[in-house]
Structure formats: C-alpha cells, structure tokens
Design brief:
With about 270 residues, the chain is of the alpha/beta class. The chain contains 11 helices and 9 strands. The strands form 2 sheets. Strands 3, 4, 5, 6, 7, 8 and 9 form a 7-stranded mixed β-sheet that branches. The chain has a two-stranded antiparallel sheet with strand order 1-2. It starts with 8 loop residues before the first strand and ends in a 9-residue tail after the last helix.
C-alpha cells in the first residue's frame, strides 16, 4: 500500500500570533494525481445528471502531467453542455517545481484558462500563473483593490472569453488577526465587499470559502454585488472553524453578509 497508489495527505501547522502557519503537501503517488483523460463519463455528468458548474484549480493541475489534460477534457465537455467553468489559479510553486517549474506551469495554465468563464486568483496568482506582468504584490495595502483591478485589462487581453475574475483581500496582522475583504470583476464592472476584522482559528480554506459562497450566489440568482458579499461572508466564517471545510450554514452566511453580528443565538 502506498507504493503505487494512496490517498494524499496535507499537513498544516496552524501557527499562533507572530508564528505563521506552515503547510506541507504530501501528494506523491496519490490516486487523484493518477487521474487522466478518459477516466470520467462527462456526457453522463453534464448530460444525464445535468451538472451546471465545473470547478477545479491549480493545485490539481500541478499534481502530475495528466491532471492538466483531464481538466481541459472536462472543461471542453462542460462548455459543450452549456455548463459554467471556473478555475482557481492558487499557484503553488512547491508543486509546480516538481513537474517542470514556472514556465511549464504558465504553459499548462494558459491552455486551461482558454476554457474558463470564471477565474479566481489574486494579483500574485495572475502574475505567476498566467505570466502577466503587474504591480509588485508588496507595493500597496493588501486591502487596496486598485492593484487587482488594474490587471484586468491584461487578463482579458490574453483571455477575452473570461467573464469574471474574483479574489479575496487579506491584511495579516498576526496569525490570528486579519483584516478581510473581497472583490470581483464581472463583465467589466467592479464589486468590493466590506472590510471586517477577523479573529482566525484556521486561515486555510478562507479563499475556497469565498469562491464557493460567490459561486453559490451566482447559481442561486443573486446579483454580482450580493454574490460577492455571500462569498466574503462564507470565507470569513470558514476561518473561525478548524480545518478547511465549512461548518457554516446558509442562514449564518446570509445573516453575516447582511450585517449580522457575533451575538449569541438562542
């Protein structure tokens, strides 16, 4: 067991105060890294089952030489069926360095993003993952959306079919104290969530929480502004739970998005 195929493992030292979190991904020989084109019946998934949205990301793309090809196959099938496609760049140099480094990553991600409707990633992800020049990620406050929005012209020039680009904004004061906001560019219009102060239990998963809440809003008929707030609220709540999977309810997310507080619920 483990020499040919196994479950991947993800280690996280959560840190505290001035000691930052440290992540170690142990994905070698994992079952998911061995997935390849032809392993899924996409006609069944998008046709008979009727899946409306396909989402994946840069971590999966970086696991092996075949996972990126599988993403392209899936997105082509999704687009043919009229489903929305989305991709979280979440650039991880530790993974890409194993299968070819930065230049290889840009080549793979460029082929994937040609099929993407909704793109998730901050300025650093856009620069590193798409090979797009932009402002220094240290140049401004992490809560200033200007640097992010200033890159949209370059993103859409390279990938004009992308309809939405979204990301979180986070100013880290200590491991357990963050200022939190979020933004989205939707068909040329910009939307910004409020800023709140977070007492963080576990920061891992906050970005995924934003993305899933944002997608939920769009799928359920919310306006872009409402969807950004739902994503922002869900990502914020997710950081208050241990682990990177949500335990927040839709009611909690909607209440926080509408200005709810941390008062006890009875």
């Amino acid at each position: 067991m483990g020499r040919s195929v196994r479950n991947g493992i993800y280690f996280i030292e959560r840190g505290f105060g001035i000691r930052g979190a440290v992540a170690v991904m142990d994905r070698g020989h994992s079952a998911v890294s061995q997935l390849k084109p032809g392993d899924f019946d996409w006609d069944h998934i998008f046709g008979k089952v009727g899946a409306r949205w396909f989402h994946t990301g840069g971590i999966f793309a970086a696991l092996s030489e075949t996972t990126g090809e599988l993403i392209i196959e899936a997105m082509q099938a999704a687009k043919a069926a009229g489903a929305v496609t989305s991709f979280d760049l979440n650039y991880r140099a530790k993974l890409w360095n194993i299968i070819g480094g930065h230049d290889h990553a840009v080549a793979v991600l460029d082929r994937i993003v040609k099929h993407v409707d909704v793109l998730v990633g901050n300025e650093e992800d856009l620069q590193l993952g798409l090979g797009i020049p932009g402002p220094s990620v240290e140049a401004k406050s992490k809560l200033d959306p200007g640097a992010f929005f200033s890159m949209m012209g370059a993103v859409t020039a390279k990938h004009p079919h992308v309809k939405v680009v979204a990301t979180t904004m986070r100013e880290v004061h200590s491991t357990n104290r963050h200022s939190w906001s979020a933004v989205a560019w939707v068909d040329g219009k910009t939307y910004t969530a409020p800023t709140c102060e977070l007492d963080v239990v576990d920061r891992v998963g906050g970005g995924d929480g934003y993305a899933s809440g944002f997608f939920y809003g769009l799928l359920s008929g919310a306006t872009p502004e409402e969807a950004v707030k739902l994503g922002w609220a869900h990502g914020a709540l997710l950081t208050t739970f241990p682990g990177d999977t949500t335990m927040a309810t839709v009611e909690q997310v909607r209440a926080f998005a509408q200005g709810g507080s941390a008062r006890i619920q009875r």
